[in-house]
Amino acid sequence: MTATPLDLAAYRRRIGLDGDAPPTLATLARLLDLHASAIAFENIDVLAGRIPSLDIDALERKLVRRPRGGYCFEQNVLFRAALRALGFEVAGLEARARAGVPGDALTGRTHMALRVRVDGRDWLADVGFGGLAPTTPVALAEGHVARDRVARYRVSAADADLMLQVRTGDAWNDLYRIVPSQPEDVDYEVGNWYVATHPQAMLRNNLLMGIATPAGRLTLLNRTLTQRTADRIHQSTLRTRADFGRVLADDFRLGVDPSELDAVMAIVERHDGEATSAPALTTPRAAVGPTGPAPAPHA
Fold first, then answer.
1. What is the DSSP letter of 254?
2. Domains of the chain, with CATH numbers?
3. Which of 36, 71, 271, 296 has a beta carbon 3.0–4.6 Å from 287's, enabling a disulfide?
4. Which residues contact 43 (CB under 8 A, 6 or more apart)?
5. Average model confidence (pLDDT) for the chain?
6. Which residues does residue 287 pair with via DSSP β-bridges, in sequence order?
7. pLDDT digits (tens, 9 = 90+) for 37-82
């Protein structure tokens, strides 16, 4: 991971950031919303057999100039660089994903998020948890509830850790568990390599995409396209290569070449074959999303 300076002007154009951007809480909230609305969460490189680079120049080429998106390490390394360039005090966090995971299962520290200090108070900032990442800052302290256009979020104590939770119906559901250690960039390199190469890693075996929209969130899990607002979920199924090409270009605003679209189709068609050969499940495996049971794109 190199320390190449970020081209802040190009990043600002990419997310549509105009005018002054002092290091305030209001600016942080604006940046989170703009970034999540402009740069999609996606794992196409992993499906194509590539390990994404976390070097700033590589992230600029892919997420800023191409345009493409990325998963948590790519998204939050880029966002951290942008925040620092704008004068924010920011540090990396590492977390264990809990969305869609059985309560007794132990997960690795394979999610990256950010801690941003504004006026002496710490805030969680995360543009890399797929369709479940809050698009507003969340105080890293108990007793504070934050709301974006889709859901309410809070941080609660979990032994020595902190748990990010989302409100679903009448209950708070766990998203990820933030550990108190201070990770180094090499720790993110290890996590990045693991989630991109482990044969059982979720991102190696599923197409996962997410982007914020004016009304809420749009996510894609393999063939299932889900549109969420604060009070509604609408799902549809993508059936053809042309469907995927159109949705990736128009809805997720990605520049995907034919070989990358090949990788997308290969994974969804593999799932088609597995569904045909496997016995039916009485209860589908799903995670709790902001407005009800829903798949949980994340990394």
1. -
2. 1-299 (3.30.2140.20)
3. 296
4. 70, 71, 203, 206, 207, 208, 209, 299
5. 91
6. 294
7. 999 999 999 999 999 999 999 999 999 999 999 999 999 999 999 9
Residues with Cβ < 8 Å from 2, sequence gap 6 or more? 55, 56, 57
Residues assigned a catalytic role = 72, 111, 126
Full-model pTM: 0.91
Q: Which residues contact 87 (CB under 8 A, 6 or more apart)?
A: 22, 23
Which tens digit of pLDDT belongs to each residue from 262-299? 999 999 999 998 876 655 433 333 333 333 333 344 55
- Return the H-helix or E-strand segment holding 8: helix 8-15
- Residue pair 134/126 in contact by the 8 Å Cβ criterion: yes
Q: Which of 150, 232, 289 is nearest to 297 (CA)?
A: 289
CA distances from 287 to 15, 126, 174, 298 (A): 29, 19, 10, 11
Strands of 145-147's sheet, edge to edge?
138-139, 121-125, 111-118, 89-97, 171-178, 161-168, 152-158, 145-147
For 99-154, write each residue's pLDDT tens digit. 888 877 888 999 999 999 999 999 999 999 988 899 999 999 998 999 999 999 99
